[in-house]
Amino acid sequence: MTSLSCSATISAASSQLSRRILFPYSNATHLHRLFHSRSPFRVGIKCSYAESSGIKDATAGPIDVVADIKTEKIVVLGGSGFVGTAICKAAISKGIEVTSVSRSGRPKYSGSWVDQVSWVTGDVFYVNWDELLAGATAVVSTLGGFGSEEQMKRINGEANILAVNAAKNFGIPKFILISVHDYNLPSFLLTPGYFTGKRKAESEVLSKYPSSGVVLRPGFIYGKRLVDGYVIPLDLLGEPLEKFLLAIENFTKPLNSLPASDVLLAPPVSVDDVAFAVVNAIRNDDFFGVFTIEQIREAAAAAKV
Ligand SMILES: NC(=O)c1ccc[n+]([C@@H]2O[C@H](COP(=O)([O-])OP(=O)(O)OC[C@H]3O[C@@H](n4cnc5c(N)ncnc54)[C@H](OP(=O)(O)O)[C@@H]3O)[C@@H](O)[C@H]2O)c1
Questions:
Q1: Residue 49 confidence class, pLDDT cut points 50, 70, 90
Q2: What is the C-alpha separation between 189 and 49, in angstroms, rounded?
Q3: pLDDT over threshold 50, residue 36
Q4: Centre of ligand 1 from the C-alpha of residue 205, in Å
Q5: Residue 99's pLDDT band (boundaries 50, 70, 90)?
Q6: What is the mean pLDDT of residues 144-169?
Q7: Integer Cα distance of 163 and 175 in angstroms
Q8: Region of 24 on the Ramachandran plot (φ > 0 left; ψ -120 to 50 alpha; else beta)
Q9: pLDDT tens, 141-150?
């Protein structure tokens, strides 16, 4: 006689935990979503096979089969930049397939994760979207930057709007935009191309992806920034400042209603937290909408588990 016993384990711990933290729901809903969610999760199946006839067969030992099903594939626009590389690295660490596109292509970082990313060299205004987006389950845009008024409108606004529409037309189910905190600035100070571009891009994400689009609004992002081969340790300033501002948060809260107060009071956020908040967003259907600095930190903590 032959016996075959199988047990299946579902390991979606980090993604489910993050949902629970950000979006509490009942156990029934939890189970329903676990099994019906579009978000991929890993299924590990262990099977043991044994002959009970008493005849020993050297080839008939227990069989352990672990099926590791990876179905997430992201395209990071600007994956070679400061925030982009952190997103690529975090995604790879969680078993997500990553393609990056930027004009400079592969960055000068070392580490095994670098070889696991597909580095595409291209300008978002001219890329072949059909080729780039084939098989992707989400697009993450880090496109943005400073320059002349026209340049800022173009890269923060137009480039992202183009990308959102390309992703939507291609049928990509999720779009994640790295935007920026408004620093509590009065609206007349939010007019420069940087902010107007960002807000137009945000509107495009939220209108084209009303129930899955994600907009992260970090303030100052710290970490180790690579500029022309040199490492700029922004964390030396950013990390202690973040800790200090979080420690005095209860005292400074009454000042939050003052215009522009967040220029001084918005806590910096680490580039890894932004990256892991993105990972959380990639893996969770329930993660959509606009996320503040504090919510980015919470989402990252849940995804790192
Ligand atoms: N750093 C911060 O403190 C901070 C704070 C709040 C918000 N943000 C936002 O976060 C995002 C990322 O910031 P970052 O500091 O990581 O910027 P970054 O280092 O300059 O990265 C921007 C990336 O976009 C790529 N890119 C620019 N134009 C492109 C084009 N036409 N086609 C393809 N790729 C293009 C760049 O690569 P190539 O130049 O090689 O093309 C680079 O990989 C930005 O949207 C920024 O506004 C940053």
A1: very low
A2: 69
A3: no
A4: 17
A5: very high
A6: 96
A7: 9
A8: beta
A9: 999 999 999 9
Residue 87 Cβ < 6 Å to ligand 1: no
Atom of ligand 1 nearest to the CA of 83: 16
CATH topology of domain 73-304: Rossmann fold (3.40.50)
145 lines ligand 1 (CB under 6 A): yes
260, 234 Cβ separation under 8 angstroms: no
Determine whether the shortest distance from the Cβ of 80 to ligand 1 is under 6 A: yes
Element spanning 85, H or E: helix 82-93
Regarding pTM above 0.90, the answer is no
Average pLDDT value for residue range 234-245: 96
Query: Between the CA of residue 128 and those of 125, 133, 254, 286, 304, what are the distances in Å?
Result: 9, 9, 50, 30, 34
Indicate whether residue 104 lines ligand 1 (CB < 6 A). yes
Task: Give the mutation target among 75, 77, 82 for probing the ligand 1 site: most ligand atoms within 8 A of CB.
Answer: 82
Sequence spans of domains, the chain: 2-51, 73-304
Is the CB of 144 inside a 6 Å radius of any atom of ligand 1?
yes
Higher pLDDT, 51 or 260: 260
Q: Which of 88, 125, 139, 143 to mutate to test the pocket of ligand 1 (most atoms within 8 A of CB)?
A: 143
pLDDT at 34 over 90: no
